[in-house]
Amino acid sequence: MIDELYSREILRRTTQLMHVGHLDQPQAQADRVAKLCGSTIHVELNMQGDVVTDFAQQVQACALGQASAAILSQQVVGASVAEIQAGRDALRALLDGQPADLPQRFADLHILESVKDYPARHASTLLAWEATLAAIASHTPT
Q1: What is the largest CA-CA distance in the chain?
Q2: What are residue 46's DSSP bridge partners?
Q3: What sections of 42-121 are H helices per DSSP?
Q4: Sign (positive/negative) of CA torsion 34, 100, 109, 50?
Q5: Within 10 A of 14 (CB to CB), how many other CB atoms are there?
Q6: In whole angstroms, how far apart are CA 59 and each of 3, 22, 30, 63, 71?
Q7: What's the rounded Cα separation, in Å, for the pair 122 and 116?
Q8: Helix (H, G, I), strand (E, B) or coil at 54
Q9: Confidence (pLDDT) at 36
């Protein structure tokens, strides 16, 4: 049971977090907490138009949250708001056991399909995506 949830690929992804830390002058930021498990994430970003141009994160999460944040962090710079929303929505569908049209940019989210059988883990798996979209929503174009 636990081997299905924490696959070798998910555990490998926990070591691949990118853009860890802070930006010098973030245009927007957001924090999110998964109440059930206590996982937290802080996201900072800069944008030009509707595209993320710089990104930083601080992640204190379980392996699932870290793996999901790693997949996001590897492709978020250069992504449009629509692509990030599509990634989050596809991950939600995947977790709900629904057909998920994963955007090419975030196709690696498929490794998290096993989490669908563990609803208590859904919030931590979505944490990085929710924080990133909250930061985008708080961004005021300059």
Answers
A1: 49
A2: 54
A3: 63-75, 81-95
A4: negative
A5: 19
A6: 23, 12, 12, 11, 13
A7: 7
A8: strand
A9: 83
* Cα 12 from chain centre: 16
Instruction: Give the distance, in angstroms, between the CA of residue 48 and the centroid of all CA atoms in the same chain.
Output: 20
DSSP code of residue 32: E
Q: Is 71 helix (H, G, I), strand (E, B) or coil?
A: helix
Contact 46, 26 (CB under 8 A): yes
**Nearest to 128, CA basis, from 74, 77, 65, 84:** 65
pLDDT for 142 equals 62
Asked whether 63 and 111 are in contact (CB, 8 A), the reply is no
Provide the 8-state DSSP code for 63. Answer: H
Of residues 89, 117, 75, the one with CA closest to residue 99 = 89
pTM here is 0.93
- What is the mean pLDDT of each successive set of 10 residues along the chain, which is 142 residues long? 65 85 97 90 97 97 93 97 98 95 95 92 96 95 68
Whether the CB-CB separation of 102 and 79 falls below 8 Å is answered with no
**Residues across the chain:** 142
